[in-house]
Design goal:
The protein folds into two domains: about 1-190, no CATH class; about 195-430, Rossmann fold (3-Layer(aba) Sandwich), CATH 3.40.50. The protein has ten helices and 17 strands. It has helices at about 30-50, 150-155, 215-220, 235-240, 270-280, 305-320, 335-345, 360-365, 395-405, 420-430, and strands spanning about 1-5, 55-65, 70-80, 105-110, 115-120, 125-130, 140-145, 175-180, 180-190, 195-200, 245, 255, 260-270, 290, 325-330, 350-355, 385-390. A hairpin with a 5-residue loop joins strand 11 (about 245) and strand 12 (about 255). Helix 6 (about 305-320) runs parallel beside helix 7 (about 335-345).
Length: about 425
C-alpha cells in the first residue's frame, strides 16, 4: 500500500491552510470538550481498523483555482479498497454516512508546480489553499497523498511547526512512508472567464424534498443512491448556461466556451461520491463541490447550512473578482433569501438568479404551507439583475431565452438543434 519516499521534504516549499473548512468563532468550552472526546474516539477507531487490514487513504472531493491560487478539498479515511467509495451507488444510502475519519492525518498535496504539507482536521477534512500552481485554465488533476504519521512526527513536524517558503523542512537521512497518490479533479478558472454558475443540489438538480424529514430520510438512508430522481430539465438548463456562446464586439458568434460550475449545497460531504456519479450519469455539467459537515462544531451543536452558503458565496466573490455568477436554486429552502442578500452585497458579481419553484404539494411537504419559502425576498434584488422563476429546468430555460436579458455582452444561451435530444434524455432520466 505504501512506498518509501526518500528526502520527501528536501527543498519542498510548504504552506499551510489559512482558512479552516468550518469557521469556529468564540468557541464554547463544553462543545470544545465534546469535540475533543469525539476526536479521541475517531483516533481509537482508526487505530483498531488499522489492525484489521484497513489503511489510511484520501477521499478526493475536488477543488477550484484562480490563475494563482488553488483550493483543494478531500478527507482522510480508513479504507480497504482505495476505490473512492465507488461501490456506494449500488448500496443503500445509509452506507455513505458510515466512515472512519482520521484526525490530524499528515497529507502531502501537489497541484501543478505547488506542493504543501498539511494536516487533516479533527474530522479528517483537508481544505488547503496553495499558491503558484502554474496551471492553465481548464480541468486538471491535483493529488493528495497520506504520509506515515510516525515518520512525520520523527522529524519533529506537527500542526504548530512554523514552516514557510523561506524555511523549508530538511529531511536529510530520513525516509517517509507514503500512501498511493490520489487524483483530485481541479477546475482552474482563468482571468478571461467572466460568467460562472453556482447551483444548489437538493430539490434543484435532484428531488430530495428537504426538509420533508421522513421522505428525505428514506431517500438518503434507505433508497439506493442509483435510484435518485432528477428534477426535469435541469441538466439541459445547467449545460446550456455552462456552454453559452461567446460573441465578438459586432455580435458575431465565436468559439463556444464552458463556464465554470460550482455545486454549492448544505448537504454533507459524505454524499459527494454518489452525487458526483448521479450528475455524470444524467449528463449534468462537470463542476466543483462545496458541501458542509454535519454535527457539532466548537460554536454550536448543529452547523448552519445557510451560513455555509453565505460564507462560500462571499469567498467565491473574493477569489474571482472578474466572475459574475448565475445563481440557481429552489424556493423550498432559503435559496431566494441567500441569493437576494448576496446580490445586494455584491451586485457586480451576480449575472442572474434562476429559481425552481416547487409545486403546492411539494411546498406543503417541505415546510407545511403552499406558499413558496421566502420568495418575496427576490423583490429586493437590485435592478439590472434578472430573476427567472419556473417549475423545472425546461421552463426556466424558456424564461431565460424569452427574457433576452443576457448576463453579459459576450454571453447568450445557445439555440442549437440538440435541445430536443437533451430534453428527451432528461425526461427519461427524471423517472428511473
Amino acid at each position: 500500500m505504501t512506498e518509501r519516499v526518500t528526502d520527501l521534504f528536501t527543498g519542498l516549499a510548504q504552506t499551510w491552510a489559512e482558512e479552516p473548512l468550518i469557521d469556529d468563532e468564540s468557541p464554547s468550552r463544553l462543545l470544545c470538550a465534546v469535540n475533543s472526546v469525539s476526536e479521541v474516539v475517531s483516533t481509537t477507531i482508526a487505530r483498531q481498523l488499522g489492525s484489521l487490514g484497513f489503511h489510511p487513504h484520501i477521499l478526493a472531493y475536488g477543488g477550484y483555482a484562480s490563475a494563482t491560487r488553488a483550493r483543494v478539498l478531500g478527507r482522510a479515511l480508513m479504507t480497504r479498497t482505495d476505490d473512492q467509495r465507488a461501490w456506494l451507488g449500488s448500496h443503500r444510502g445509509w452506507r455513505q454516512f458510515f466512515d472512519a475519519q482520521i484526525p490530524r492525518q499528515p497529507v502531502l498535496v501537489s497541484c501543478g508546480q505547488a506542493r504543501a504539507l498539511t494536516f487533516a482536521s479533527a474530522d479528517g477534512y483537508i481544505d488547503l489553499t496553495l499558491e503558484g500552481h502554474g496551471l492553465e485554465p481548464g480541468w486538471h488533476a491535483a493529488s493528495m497523498q497520506v504520509l506515515h504519521a510516525a515518520d512525520v512526527a520523527a522529524l519533529g513536524i506537527d500542526e504548530d511547526t512554523p514552516v514557510s517558503r523561506d524555511r523549508p523542512v530538511e529531511a536529510s537521512g530520513h525516509r517517509i512512508r507514503a500512501g498511493r497518490a490520489v487524483s483530485v479533479p481541479l477546475r482552474v478558472i482563468g482571468a478571461d472567464d467572466h460568467i460562472g454558475i453556482v447551483s444548489d443540489i437538493d430539490d434543484t438538480v435532484m428531488v430530495s424534498t428537504i426538509p420533508r424529514v421522513f421522505v428525505a430520510i428514506r431517500r438518503a438512508l434507505i433508497d439506493r443512491a442509483s435510484s435518485r430522481e432528477a428534477v426535469p430539465g435541469m441538466a439541459l438548463l445547467l449545460t446550456s448556461l455552462a456552454r453559452g456562446d461567446a460573441t465578438d464586439s459586432r455580435g458575431a458568434p465565436t468559439s463556444a466556451f464552458h463556464a465554470p460550475v460550482i455545486y454549492l449545497s448544505t448537504g454533507a460531504w459524505n454524499v459527494v461520491p454518489t452525487v458526483r456519479d448521479f450528475l455524470a450519469r444524467l449528463h449534468y455539467p462537470r463542476g466543483a463541490f462545496l458541501m458542509t459537515d454535519f454535527g457539532p462544531s466548537n460554536t454550536g451543536w448543529l452547523r448552519s447550512g445557510p451560513e455555509h452558503k453565505r460564507r462560500e458565496l462571499r469567498r467565491l466573490a473574493q477569489d474571482f473578482p472578474q466572475i459574475r455568477w448565475i445563481l440557481v436554486g429552489d424556493d423550498g429552502q432559503r435559496d431566494p433569501l441567500i441569493y437576494s442578500e448576496f446580490a445586494r452585497e455584491h451586485p457586480n458579481h451576480v449575472a442572474g438568479i434562476a429559481i425552481r419553484s416547487l409545486s403546492g404539494l411539494e411546498q406543503v411537504m417541505a415546510h407545511g404551507t403552499t406558499a413558496p419559502l421566502l420568495s418575496d425576498s427576490l423583490h429586493a434584488v437590485p435592478d439590472g439583475i434578472p430573476v427567472w422563476y419556473a417549475p423545472d429546468g425546461f421552463h426556466l430555460l424558456e424564461r431565460i431565452r424569452e427574457d433576452g436579458t443576457a448576463p453579459g455582452p459576450q454571453w447568450r444561451v445557445p439555440r442549437d438543434g440538440g435541445d430536443e435530444e437533451w430534453a428527451s434524455s432528461a425526461q427519461e432520466n427524471a423517472h428511473p
